[in-house]
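Quick check before the chapter quiz. The format below is the same one you will see on the exam, so make sure you can read both the input and the output lines.
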Amino acid sequence: MDVLKIATAGSVDDGKSTLIGRLLYDTKSLTNDKLEAIERASKQKGFDYLDFSFATDGLVAEREQGITIDVAHIYFSTNTKSYIIADTPGHVEYTRNMVTGASTSQAAIVLIDARKGVIEQTNRHFFINNLLRVKDVIVAINKMDLVDFSEETYNNIKADFEALMEKRDYQDQRITFIPVSALKGDNVVHGSDNMPWYNGQTLIEHLEQLKTEDIYNTGTPRFPVQYVVRPKTNEFHDFRGYAGKVYGGDLSVGDDVVVLPSQTKSKIKEIYAYDKTFDTASRRSSVTITLENDINVSRGDMIVKENDLPTIEKQFTATICWMDAKQLTSGAKYLLQHGVNKVLARVENIHHKINPDYSGISTDAQSLGMNDIASVSFKLNRPIFYDAFKEHRTNGSFILIDSQSNNTVGAGFIQ
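Here is the expected output.
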């Protein structure tokens, strides 16, 4: 069964948590005890309706303030798909949380309050989904019940968002507009009798029909070696396999490959998944590969096709989302985790800050504070093998780690 990870984004009180709760409720994904807890909490708040936001807002501060602070992951399934929803906060001060939630998502739901329309935060949410190359974006125009289910209001907001789309640089994105009322349930799982002018799909219908091959970012195959398999048994005494996960594309038996960084050439001999053999390892599959040559391969090496080599360099420029209270400055050193590899990195130059509301750049940046997004150059103590993020989402991303606190302080996307 396919697994689809979805990130949500919306401003304060746009109804993200309510939308997710409604989705869970109408797909019958809430347990009885959870439903009872929602009913009890709604009564305590004096509501004459079920407040589905209680299904997702787990922190006390979230429930008290009616906002989302932390990234919550919600799991549910239908007959055809399994879903993981990253419920991310929409506040400016939680940009880092939004980036974290969207960085591994294949689809996103951007909520807009029908009463407010496209606002500055909408620009920010769309910018981040564009930056992170999220392929399928659903613009859910929520609270249609509060604007009398007006088609004119919906069309005006849609036109404003389409004007925003002209500013993006990722043209492969598919944008879908759906008018919804999360509180009432219109067009979430069930169609709406209140909006006969809308003849498109409901939210769940759209998610259900997304095909894996259409929404996953593809590229050239990359196989970072996680573990060298050497069984200590007589039966497999001479077995040497390389375990990992295939990213970007497929690998097949007989493919001519190169092992990085040694650049030793070989050919794929066998592909195993547990105790079964396969002719092809599709992207996102975890397998063990054997090679025809008995060559030296270690954890952290990467197996790629012979004619599809990544860039092998000790320096690059990346877009950074800074996540720490301690500022990033030129000359600072961090541990850079790129896939399995961890190297020492020095900040060479902060080129400019990027305003994530599409208002331009700031070229006089001397440092980065929490939630800043900027173009930054790095120099490494040894080469890594990478692709540009726009070409390969997995092999073009990394995190920065403070060597003293061991905290993750930044996320990077190689330009």
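If your answer matched, good. The first helix runs from residue 16 to 26.
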